[in-house]
Design brief:
Blueprint (H helix, E strand, L loop, with lengths): L1 H37 L7 E5 L2 E5 L16 H11 L2 H7 L1 E2 L10 H9 L2 H7 L4 E3 L7 H16 L8 E4 L22 H7 L2 H17 L4 E2 L23 H16 L9 E7 L18 E2 L11 H8 L4 E4 L3 E2 L13 H11 L5 E2 L29 H11 L4 E2 L5 H8 L5 H17 L10 H7 L3 H14 L1 E5 L11 E5 L3 H4 L4 E2 L8 E6 L23 H13 L2 E6 L7 H6 L2 E5 L4 H9 L16 H6 L23
Parallel strand pairs: 3-12, 4-5, 5-6, 6-7, 7-9, 8-10, 9-11, 14-15, 14-16, 16-17, 17-18
Antiparallel strand pairs: 1-2, 13-18
Helix pairs in contact: 1-5, 2-14, 3-13, 3-14, 7-16, 8-9, 9-10, 12-13, 16-20
Length: about 650
């Protein structure tokens, strides 16, 4: 026993020493990273007062430079700033990585934030475009972090301010990574497609823009102009459905709402995605994964997927994002969109006359030093045999202005120094990127006034309109004998809904046998995958597994059942539809909205923005690039009943 205790003490001692060593290594490494960045900072901007006007001395030289003069046109200011920039500073503008906050609740992201602090990206690497993919619920905590980052940027040699981007933050979707409960809540984009109301979409864009700017966000990584022609694809919820003309109308409306007639200091720059249409994924697998890298066009329908993007260009979207996929057989080489010159330069820029910024989707470069390399393989589809330097070169010559997710400007610096990419080519892209910062007002004042934030987000009238939109956007698929709305206060058995909230509408019972009705709120079916990233993508099968279907049908056979189903994709529910008394489809709406609908306090007005197939066999027969081709759909495109 003594021998065992001795060995145990030695083992524990060694483990403690190892843990201490790891801690000290991490601590000093993090301090070294921060110090390396802080050593490059030259101090805050001072204020110059000339002829009664105040100007920020961003380059700290004691005089008013042209790019600091707020009275001059953005084009003039850009030219002056560009003339003062080094190759390293220009290269930094062309990278747009994630930046994580140490205030996040998710521990792995907080650790990543320590090893990739803002000093490293902003001061050491010269990066000024950053995406904030996750956010603490408290907007003031988020704003404090944004302002602290802007303070670091102000202290760099030229004081170029930061632009922050984000994926959608207004969804009510459970588990949405960037959801902020302090903002107003709305349905998925499909909900707007269900209502077919361009004026409402404009209004939402205006509200979203105000709330984004209030919390320090300047670029929306949306709208999604892809078409839902392949029902198994995992990103349909973010689209406006499968009809190209409907998507075009709402895409343009959303851009107009976010940007206005033209970009200004109250706008949010929209990055429309994913050119030239990410919907026709082969067999429905997503291009975030190697097995989903191909896009298929068996119906020879490539042009159909361009229609919403033409509308986005006409609406003056400030930015465009190509997808990861390889458009099989559509160009002379089968490579991902961002590496394809015939797609980016010949089609988008030359044929469609697009002059805005083209930013690649995230993590297309196989750079082992990138922060994203820690989370999985890159989406360098079709160019896997090229090294990182050559991949960057190929994308630049294809027409890419900025690299999303990639965080190593040194790659571009090496290409310029070796003569493989000219400095004038960098100037073409950097001029556009800087111009946008000027028109958004960031050079004049990039800071957020914390006292004004709470009056600009989550306004009662916006919250009410969001709830009303969620209610109206629901689609009444079936209503046997006028089952809905329920009258009075019947006894209900509920699953997957807020019980306490339900009690203010109905008499909620614990046992199915005691109920007058069963209310089943169904999460969407999908094919589970093992990878971390894959867990966020609901792709593959659209029908419920036999054991789950059996359980649902058992409830229906015992009590009159009302089904509410989240239609993030066109799910296959023929047996459920047949036996349910009523079926409400929705596009990620709150339990309150559902109870308003079921009780009759609100009424569904939505029409399906896609077909709902009658079987998985029918799904498998569909062509990835063709709309409205499901054989004998259970519910056709445009279906939607009313209570009256």
């Amino acid at each position: 026993m003594k021998k065992f205790l001795k060995v145990l003490r030695w083992t524990l001692g060694i483990l403690l020493i190892l843990l201490l060593g790891i801690f000290l290594y991490g601590y000093f490494k993090i301090q070294g990273i921060k110090n390396r960045g802080e050593d490059k900072l030259v101090g805050p901007a001072t204020v110059l007062v000339i002829d009664g006007h105040s100007f920020r001395d961003l380059n700290k030289n004691g005089k008013l430079d042209t790019y600091e003069d707020t009275r001059l046109a953005p084009e003039v200011r850009v030219n002056d700033l560009l003339s003062q920039m080094t190759i390293e500073e220009k290269a930094g503008q062309m990278f747009h990585p994630f930046l994580f906050s140490t205030k996040l609740d998710i521990m792995p992201m907080r650790i990543l934030a320590l090893f990739y602090p803002p000093e490293e990206y902003i001061a050491t690497r010269g990066i000024t475009h950053l995406t904030s993919p996750l956010a603490p619920d408290d907007p003031l905590v988020h704003i404090e972090w944004v302002n602290a980052c802007q303070k670091i940027a102000e202290q760099t040699r030229l004081g170029i301010p930061l632009s922050f981007s984000s994926d959608p933050r207004h969804s009510n979707k459970k588990g949405a990574a960037v959801f902020m409960k302090s903002l107003s809540q709305w349905p998925d984009a499909l909900g707007f497609a269900a209502l077919r109301d361009s004026s409402l979409t404009v209004r939402f864009g205006q509200i979203a823009a105000r709330e984004y700017r209030a919390i320090g966000l300047h670029t929306s990584l949306h709208p999604v102009a892809d078409l839902a022609t392949e029902p198994r694809w995992g990103r349909i919820a973010g689209t406006f459905g499968e009809d190209a003309e409907l998507s075009a109308m709402l895409t343009a409306a959303y851009i107009y709402g976010m940007q206005g007639d033209s970009l200004n200091r109250n706008s949010v720059s929209t990055m429309t995605k994913h050119f030239s249409g990410g919907g026709p994924q082969k067999d429905g697998w997503d291009a975030h994964f190697k097995y989903g890298k191909d896009q298929a066009y068996p119906g020879n329908n490539f042009a159909y997927h361009l229609i919403p993007f033409k509308a986005a260009i006409k609406a003056k979207t400030a930015q465009m994002m190509p997808y990861y996929g390889i458009p099989l057989g559509q160009t002379s080489e089968d490579v991902g969109f961002a590496f394809n010159k015939e797609i980016i330069t010949d089609l988008l820029k030359d044929s469609l006359n697009y002059t805005g910024i083209v930013c690649s989707d995230w993590n297309i470069i196989n750079d082992p030093d990138s922060a994203l390399a820690k989370f999985g393989e890159p989406m360098d589809h079709g160019v896997e045999d090229l090294d990182a330097l050559t991949q960057v070169e190929k994308a630049i010559h294809a027409g890419i202005d900025q690299f999303g997710g990639t965080d190593n400007p040194e790659l571009l610096v090496k290409l310029v120094e070796s003569g493989r990419v000219s400095e004038s080519r960098l100037d073409q892209s950097v001029r556009k990127l800087l111009h946008q910062k000027f028109v958004l007002g960031l050079f004049d004042d990039p800071y957020i006034n914390e006292k004004e934030v709470l009056s600009d987000i989550g306004r009662p009238e916006d919250v009410r309109l969001g709830l009303e939109t969620m209610v109206r956007s629901a689609v009444l698929l079936k209503n046997e004998a006028g089952t809905l709305p329920l009258s009075g206060k019947p006894k209900v058995y509920i699953e997957n809904m807020d019980r306490d909230l339900a009690a203010s509408y109905f008499d909620v019972v614990d046992e199915l046998a005691e109920a007058d009705f069963a209310l089943l709120n169904l999460d969407p079916p999908f094919e589970p995958r093992e990878g971390l990233l894959e867990s966020f993508f609901h792709q593959g099968r659209l029908d419920y597994a036999p054991e789950e279907l059996e359980r649902i049908l058992d409830v229906m056979q015992r009590k009159p059942t009302i089904v509410t189903a989240y239609l993030e994709r066109p799910i296959v529910i023929p047996e459920i539809s047949e036996q349910a008394k009523a079926v409400l489809g929705h596009f990620s709406i709150s339990d309150k909205a559902l109870f308003e609908l079921i009780s009759g306090k609100g009424r569904p007005e939505g029409k399906l923005p896609f077909e709902m197939p009658s079987s998985m066999q029918a799904v498998e027969k569909q062509l990835e690039d063709v709309p409205f081709d499901s054989e004998n759909p259970l519910y056709p495109f445009g279906w939607g009943l009313r209570y009256d």
